[in-house]
Every structure is written in C-alpha cells, then in structure tokens.
Write a structure and sequence with these properties.
mainly alpha; two-stranded antiparallel sheet; 12 strands; disordered N terminus
Length: about 325
Amino acid sequence: MSRKLQESNINIEDDEDEGCDVNDDERCDENGEEECNVTALSLNKQKEAEVVVAVHGTKTKLWNTKLLSALRGAKEKLKPKIESVKRKLVPTVQAARTKMADLIQRTKTKVKSENTRKLIAIYFFVILLLSLCLGMAVYFTVYERHKDTGLECLSCTNVSCDVETKVCLHGCTAGWQGSRCDEGCSQSFHGPDCNLTCGHCSEDTHCDPVTGVCPDGCMAGYTTEHCNTPCPAGYHGTSCNQSCGQCKSPDTCNSVTGVCSQGCKDGYEGSHCNETCPLGWYGPECSQNVRPVSMDDCATSRVVNAKPEKSVTT
C-alpha cells in the first residue's frame, strides 16, 4: 500500500511541475505559483482517497471471499448432521401424520355416526308425533260424531253412543248391560257388561255390581273380599276363621264343615277330630284299650274294657 502511495505522490509531484507549464499556463501566469500548489494538493488528496477506496474494496472482496469459503465449509460439515437429523425425523413425522390422519378419520366417523343417530331419533320422533296427531284427530272425529250430551249415554264406555239410536258403540261400564247400557246387572254378576260372576257371598247377599265385592262377607269355606278363594288347608267355616281338628292331613279337612274325611290322628276321635280318647283307650279312632297288668286289676278290667259310647257331634 505504501508503495502505491509513493507512486501516486511521484505522479502528483510530476503533475505539480507540469501543471503550470503544460495544462494551465495562462492561469499560472495570472494567479501565480501559490494557486498551482493548491490545485496540485487537492489532486493529490483526491488520488489518495481513490487509493484508500480501492484498498478498502480489495479488503472487502477478500473478506467476502473468506466468509463465503467459511460458510461453504460449515455447510459441508453440517450437511451430514442435517441428513442424519432428517433421517431420524422423517419416520417420526410420518408416524405423526399417520396418527393425525387416523384421528381425523375417527373423528369424522364418530361425528357422522352421531349425526346419523340424531337424524334417526328425529325421524322416529316426527313419525311418532304424526301418528299421535292422526290418532287424536280420528278419535275426536268419531267421538264428536257419536257424542251425546243427554243422560242416555252416561253408562256407555267412553260416553259414546249413536246420536239417533242411543246404542253404545264400545259396550257398557261396570254394573250395566244392554245395547243402551240402561239395565243393571242381574244377581250374581258384576263388571263391564255384567260379564263377571260374583263369588260365594254370604247367604241372602249379593256382590257389588261394579266392584264385585261381597259387602257382608263370604259363605263358609271361602275368603277374600270377592269370596272366590277357598279356605287354606287347616281352616274352615265362615270367612275361614275356624281351625280344623286333628285330621290325619290338613288337606282332608272339609273347608265348609270342618269334618275330617280320612279320620283322625292317633289319640283323637269324632267327625271333627277334636275329641281326645277316653281313659284306657288309644290308637286310631281310640279303638285300642289298655289291658290289666295284675290280678287286682281283673275286677276292674271289665269296666276298663267296656268302651264308652261316643258322643255324636255334628
């Protein structure tokens, strides 16, 4: 650089010597030697500036070249690492994409399924609503057509009868019978259209024509409010409120009379098996007697062997 500056100084000095004589003789004559020196100095500074700029440009280019070279080297060094990272990341990215696609597909399927169920539910709800509306329309049409505001149809089911003939269209309510439902139930019958038979109510009473309940209890051998259930085993009489005797089996006790149809247990006698054997007698129906065990008892054995007469019970 100093060499270039020296060469440039020499050139400037040469120009100073020749400036007044060659390039501007007239101006040197007019202004004198001092102005020529100033001109030469300015030219020298300008060339120095050009040299500095040139040197700076050269250094800049040199630094740019070194920087590019360093960047290329760093790129070459980092290239294997980048490739390695890429090779490691590619499967992970692919797996993530696969999982994301699967999740999106499942979400779409779930949403589609839920929407389908909602549509089906709405569809059936609309059908149910339309059916209900249609049924109500038909019912009220028929009801208004056959509805009667008089007293003739009050015993008809749904209070519906023909306006002209007064005939009930759907039968009678409980306790009534006939085409116009204007006749009460006969004795021993009850319920809608009087088509149900009463139970075994007590004598001289009848069941309620609407509910079928016996108001004064049941006949002997039956129980419950409708008097249509026989007495349970071991009981008999009115409303089954009496216990049977010592029958051989509870099932052999007559639910009406309480008589044991197959005899009594050992030690009991009588038609109801509620009497114990007399002294000296035992066994079925008290048919066996006790024999004397000594001679002293012989005198009384006749009395013992003589079985007393059974009292007849009804």
